[in-house]
Predict the 3D structure of the following.
Amino acid sequence: MFEAIFENVRRKSPLIHNITNYVTVNDCANMLLACGASPIMADELEDAVEITALCGGLNINIGTLNRNTIPAMFAAGKRANELNHPVILDPVGAGASTLRTETALGLLKEVRFTVIRGNISEIKTLALGSGTTKGVDADVADRVTEENLDGAVTFAKDFARRAGARVAVTGAIDIVTDGTRTFCIRNGRPEMSAITGTGCQLSALTAAFVTANPDRPLEAAAAAVCAMGLCGEIAYSRMSELDGNASYRNYIIDAMCHLTPTALEMGAKYELR
Amino acid sequence: MFEAIFENVRRKSPLIHNITNYVTVNDCANMLLACGASPIMADELEDAVEITALCGGLNINIGTLNRNTIPAMFAAGKRANELNHPVILDPVGAGASTLRTETALGLLKEVRFTVIRGNISEIKTLALGSGTTKGVDADVADRVTEENLDGAVTFAKDFARRAGARVAVTGAIDIVTDGTRTFCIRNGRPEMSAITGTGCQLSALTAAFVTANPDRPLEAAAAAVCAMGLCGEIAYSRMSELDGNASYRNYIIDAMCHLTPTALEMGAKYELR
Amino acid sequence: MFEAIFENVRRKSPLIHNITNYVTVNDCANMLLACGASPIMADELEDAVEITALCGGLNINIGTLNRNTIPAMFAAGKRANELNHPVILDPVGAGASTLRTETALGLLKEVRFTVIRGNISEIKTLALGSGTTKGVDADVADRVTEENLDGAVTFAKDFARRAGARVAVTGAIDIVTDGTRTFCIRNGRPEMSAITGTGCQLSALTAAFVTANPDRPLEAAAAAVCAMGLCGEIAYSRMSELDGNASYRNYIIDAMCHLTPTALEMGAKYELR
């Protein structure tokens, strides 16, 4: 199934509009190109609404909010909804500040999201309506492990149902659910968390996969999560003893260039619950 | 001729002011350093006008427009004109939205550009005054090929004359013209289009080449286009089977570090029409 | 001593708030992760003040000022002062424009900085209250050499005393002083200046080192300067003849990933004056 999903990405080359943070934006653009999609960035209100109409999907990432880009996120999100374009939310740092939490919650109210992708602390903030996130990484206390996986799945399913969206909680074990069916994914490497923006790249990738597969957004989101993790594994196997997070970042994007639909199908490690 | 032009870049180390998009700005800065120039970025109105006066040349790139940077583009462009500094326009995404098209057309009216560099779809938008661009890449229907090259050259020459600027239309075959003489350039690799920002980097590079060679802007622009394509070729020959667009990006900038004026002279593939 | 300082960084993993320029922000984030710290970026006034309270230290870099981020710098700086968090100033391009010079001088008046890190031209601008900087690199006439080192040390000590901060003047020879004791550091490679943002990365790194070592900010700043230079040396020894500034950038960050506290202790090249 993931084979056909990834083939659609490569074949359709969806154009993805990103309203995203300036920290990791270049990597998001190169990751989108690596998977076969095309990126465009536009975050000024007037420009963003028109660009979103031109694109196939929209990726909203709140990593570096400012007063100009927030209205662009709301307006582009609504326009994408009108056009039935997939919209992804990456609530970076939700729970770490009032502005981030309230912007994410406001977006959830006014925009219909196809997929919400974040770490467990960010998703908990959205589910509870208030947050305790310590920065942009998941709190240690929150982390999803084999021990608390059942509870985490129940939590994610519940939130997905309430939010009317697919939810991807990513970490050591990834959970992707639409509230009914759930993928528990075990691709990836812990070293990926030492690279800035692997989460942001995954959100952009998810937008590409979901846009190219409008009739199966849950599977497409799960395929994107597996693809990112698998590229992390492939790239890790290539690391020399001198390589660190900077080279690893490049190798992951490189691996996405070379990943074939068949290799994704074979390398995806997940169970359906 | 390109040898002497590139020697001037290395020797004079021109300081280039960039008002550019936040997606590819880091690569533009490293590319400028790689060719021997120095970058500075400033996009707040007050800062930009003063910084432009300090610099030798100005590179304006509309890839991520916002309401703060647009006035800075106009004001810095006019100030650079007063000082007789070269000014480059990269109309990223002109034709994809009203804001981009109108900003580019407005800049063309109020600022005298030394070189306008874009893909064929962007340049067509500027020439026709309205656009049909599908994102930030050239439309397939527009692409310059051996078959339609004559027509594309005539079009570019006509636009160069009307705009009073040199025009560089880059793609599989690059056209650089001042309306009278035209360079048709065949350096480069198709894989370069899978890297975000090779066009942006080329515009920054063009600014450096033109600034260091004020008495022959057409040849300097053509030399920059050849240099970028040649580095794409050199970098490609270095790719391992695991390397993809992320490593390729680094290798191209690396290649510019090592490119000698003589190697540029020898490796440039162009015909003069 | 540097061994224990670096161990604290790795062990405490300080969360560093960066209000920084969009040119080099990604490298700053990856460098912070490489040294064992965590980055977060927030530059909108409302967000920045709250994020700074969440973090351990604050890094203010004026490389791409705009009217939105300037108030955030002042407000976050004051908030960090109230909380006794270390605050670093990187006065990028001070002296190159009125906006940069005045913002830096204003910040010096209203915010208490733990460390001010810049090149000699930027620091001279701050010390003299007006500037002559030619861009973002140090003027040749200003550069610190073995011949003028004594004078430069006296100047830096005097400024450190007047500013009530540690001062790090970085270049071929680095000077780190609190006005009484002075580290003269000879780590690093001249090729590092061909990479955009090695200075910005060092400022971010300094924030991490100082935050993890609140009781010895002078030594922590000196350790950060040695660590950056040492990584420049290690990375340089890894360069192939095809590698240039883009790969070198990655290798330096990679080297920080692998640098051990003991290797820093052994490789640091400094004299105390």
